[in-house]
# Entry
Amino acid sequence: MGLNSKDLLSIHDLSVGEVATILDVARKLKRKQKNGEPHEYCKGKTLAMIFSKASTRTRVSFETGFHQLGGHPIYLSDSASQVGRGEPVRDTARVLSRFVDGIMIRTFSHDEVKELAQYATIPVINGLTDLLHPCQALTDIFTIMEHQKVLKGRKLVYVGDGNNMAHSLMFACAKVGMHMVCASPKGYQPDPEILRLAQEDGAMTGAKITVEENLLEAAKGADVLYTDVWASMGQEEEFAERKKVLGSYQINKELLAVARPEAIVLHCLPAHRGEEITEDVMEGPQSVIFDQAENRLHVQKAIMALLMSEENL
Ligand code: CP
Ligand code: NVA
# Structure
């Protein structure tokens, strides 16, 4: 069992079956880890992790996860490597391919990650770009599955900026047959091309992927409420402007009241309490945000094992 593609750059590139495989392997690896059973599927392998943006969860979950798989992770920051001094990405790709067995990268430009994957002879995993955050969205689906058992036909309502997180969630929901409404104001709605591709993916599973400006309308009957920050990494200077337009796009008690009573609340973190989510909802009984954070570890271990291990999982 593995994945057809060499890399994991976008959930759109995965088949419906491959998404199911990742979720299944993640469930098995989570159980093994909880039971203390060995699962060193990447023993003797090395992973280079390139970070051109800040991270807590992605770095620690990839690093810990690869270690638990028996491998050796190497952290490369912009400031401490030649990446930040402008070495061409196609050179980095070819050099790292001679040393290590896989690359995880978090950076700004999605095209840069595509170029890295094109020139690397080893798997490349997207740990977030300005366009997409696939490892997070796969984790989110895994978390929904744990809490709500069935995915098909459920409704996820994403609240706020139509950003990298919204884009990857649209692809993820489409692949597993979940409906998604992206509730965003004009000017901050998702990329129309990503929306079109996600709708095409959704046509194969029965998932409806839509955009809606009216938040209360969108949230009616939601099984999952999800939000992310109003200003992403690299957009800090736009915060005041974004706050004016996105200010009412918040998960709060009033919004929760129009969702289904058993709805769960997700946030990829880091969260800005009092902005896109209120303190009471974040700390309330419907929030499974910290289960979600933990699951980054299990889902990314599945991705790394599927891309990098020769063993049958
Ligand atoms: N959710 C997420 O990717 O968190 P970090 O920025 O801390 O990695
Ligand atoms: N949209 C956020 C996600 C952080 C995990 C960002 O890109 O900063």
The chain has twelve helices and nine strands.
